[in-house]
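Weekly structure sync - notes
Attendees: PM, LS, DV (DV joined late)
Agenda: review two folding runs queued last week.

Item 1: First target. Sequence and structure tokens pasted below for the record.
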Amino acid sequence: MPTQVLRDNVRGLVANGAQLVEVLSAAEYMEGHLVGAINIPLSVMDEETTAHLQKNRPVIVYCYDFQCDLSARAAWRLESLGFTQVFRYMPGKLDWAANGLPMEGKQAAVPHVSDLAKPDVPVCTMEEYIGDVQMRVQTMGWESCVVVNEQRVVLGLLRKDALRSKPDKLVEQVMEYAPRTYRLDADLTRAADYMQKHKLDSVLVTTSDGHLEGLLRQEDVQHALAGVG
């Protein structure tokens, strides 16, 4: 029976020699795929097309995302062909790219949020007082502070106006709840359009698990896009 795995499992298996197979079409594979993956579309998966794979060595199959069932069907197909250690990366390459892991293909060369996100943005907790946070943020030369928990999961955001609140206010009382976030593989143009439309000078960048990766500033995006043009 195929085993379902997540991205950290995939990284460990690949590091130990597992074979990595994308089962989407050749065109989708060329757009972008996990580094080191080969392409065997499910539509042509048989004894001949899998002959170069080792049947007693771990093999991981993946497709696009959770909703894509091609990897599930491909995993069972490989088992029917005699493969003994079959793994299915169920979240797929959308999850991989969204978490900033290495990709190859046409889209890998396109500028993404990951290229510009500032990882050194100040952080604070909900239990801190604004006065303490103000001093730290000013010392670091920033005008924003991200509210996180012990696991660096984003809980809120203090923008410039919130940081001007009374010093005895708790962060939780003035923070912006549920600020908009982008994944590391997001397109810069879409992020720029969103910030302009909502008159924001920045947006947060997180993993699909909600962990903080950095802050994307509109001025940096505009400068990068001007250079691309």
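Item 2: Second target, run right after the first with the same settings.
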Amino acid sequence: MDDLQALYQDLILDHAKHPHGRGEPGEPSSHQRNPVCGDEVILHADLDDGVVRAITWTGDGCSISQASASMLTSLVEEEGGMPVADARERIAAFREALRSRGAVTLEEDVFGDASALSGVSKYTARVKCAMLAWVALEDVLARSPDR
């Protein structure tokens, strides 16, 4: 394992152990579950005037699913909120990278800590784990009147 890969693994484990945004989600929320492994996430996005202001979530599962939810939360926090259109674009780009089997990597300047999840794309059984929170946000945005 090279040093960069080890650093990414440490970052994933750190987010799993010390998650950002973990707390009881409000409404509207989305409950997503991976039936293959049992991972689950319930996520709430605080929307205001077409901007995702904050994310709160709770869930159980592997380090990848929990770290991914934390990283998504951090990404929104670091930007001080994210326009819904930008959130949708990032969700689509995240999905594309994770389904690419390593052909597409997530850029750190666009995805922040979540760029560490690029390597997950090589393990198809783990892609759904990493996507869980992102799919939950996508669902909340699709059902929100503040789209």
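Discussion on item 2: The radius of gyration is 14 Å.
Action: LS to circulate a short write-up before next sync.
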